[in-house]
Amino acid sequence: MIYLDNAATTQINPVAWQAMQAMEQTNFFNANTLYLGGIRAAQAIDQARTSLMRKLHATGGQLIFTNTATQANHLIMDHCIRRPNHHLVITAGDHNSVYLYAKARADQGYTVATAPLKRDGTIDISALEQLITAQTALFVFSLVNSDIGTYQDAAAVVAAVRARNPHTHIHADAAQAFCKFDFDVTQLGLDSVTICGHKIHGPKGVAALWVRSGINIEPPHGTLNNAAIVGLATAAENFACPQVTELHNYLVQHLPAGCHVNGINNNPYITNLSLPDVFGETVLNALSAQEIYVGLGSACAAHAKGNRTLDAMKLTPKAQKQVLRISLSMNNTLADIKTFLTALTTVLSAIRSHNIL
Asked: Sign of dihedral through CA atoms 284, 288, 291, 294?
């Protein structure tokens, strides 16, 4: 099997899995209890929290553990958007968890605006500036776009919003960026950030929301998942993918004739490919039969009729169906990429020769 859909989810790091097993077997206590076992469990969670905040370069604030990145995004959006006059601004490339929340608020009569993307997938900062008003309570953006992988210039985005309204809360969904890029939440001036376990070889079912000092949010009620939290922190501590740039460069330099990369492509982990007059789903199915797994875009929007990111980049409806998303991880090798490219070339040739689109 060759797995090239790591933006959807990743295989758990054995080191993280071992740490989780140890927690489940020896430190399984409820961290809210007052006896020694519970105290030790709480200490393990505090250590995980400290480790993750250090990874974010957070000098203070609160790290709240959640079940999913969607829950973390909704937690901060619920905190900031409470009344119809609380203006919300998102971007055209945001994850479904943000887009659907914003749509629901708009349907309820709230004021919602969407900042467009440029053709290269970056946020149109000039257009964004015009959307920020004195009533804008919250601006949300994805630090890395999950469809095409664009790594946004967060410093420029934050500066543009602050210039228009210094009181606007700025939230970055960093589920696809955490550990893959070294960003400093304090230096960037972000108010809150979402991170996620299963995108970095950690467990599914655990994520976290960091909020800066001065913002008090009530964490979700319930017993914390000790093992998952420790698994997330251990995965973050042990995330390393030194070969990713080499693999990405080889991929884009040896694409079959007629294929090209969409967007600015400044992120080696995610590459969105346009295919030569062939539907991506057809190619995906043919590759899947060979146990080579790729994606079409964000897994949470896999069954949608179109792709909002590609639509914002002005790709035609037909062109939006003629894409593949290749996303790499610390487990991939150059042999994987070479095998994929050979298979892709063969599949494209076979499809076109039989006029199967």
From this structure: positive
Cβ–Cβ under 8 Å, residues 55 and 177: no
Looking at the chain, the domain(s) classified CATH 3.40.640.10 span 14-237
Phi/psi region, residue 305 (left: phi>0; alpha: psi -120 to 50; beta: rest), is: alpha
Q: Write out the chain's pLDDT in tens, 357 residues.
A: 999 999 999 999 999 999 999 999 999 999 999 999 999 999 999 999 999 999 999 999 999 999 999 999 999 999 999 988 899 999 999 999 999 999 999 999 999 999 999 999 999 999 999 999 999 999 999 999 999 999 999 999 999 999 999 999 999 999 999 999 999 999 999 999 999 999 999 999 999 999 999 999 999 999 999 999 999 999 999 999 999 999 999 999 999 999 999 999 999 999 999 999 899 999 999 999 999 999 997 655 455 567 999 999 999 999 999 999 999 999 999 999 999 999 999 999 998 887 555
Report the distance separating Cα 306 and Cα 320, nearest Å.
Answer: 7
Q: Produce one character per residue of 183-218: b if its CB has 16 or more CB atoms within 10 Å, e if not.
A: bebeebbbbbbbbbbbbbbbbbebbbbbbbeeeeee
**CATH classification code of 14-237:** 3.40.640.10
In whole angstroms, what is the distance from residue 242 CA to residue 87 CA?
Answer: 42
The DSSP code for 155 is: H
Residues of the chain with CATH 3.90.1150.10: 2-10+242-353
- Assign domain 2-10+242-353 one CATH number from 1.20.1070.10, 1.10.1060.10, 1.10.10.60, 3.90.1150.10: 3.90.1150.10
Q: How many CB atoms lie within 10 A of CB 46?
A: 13
How much is the pTM?
0.95
Cβ neighbour number for residue 280 with a 10 Å cutoff: 21
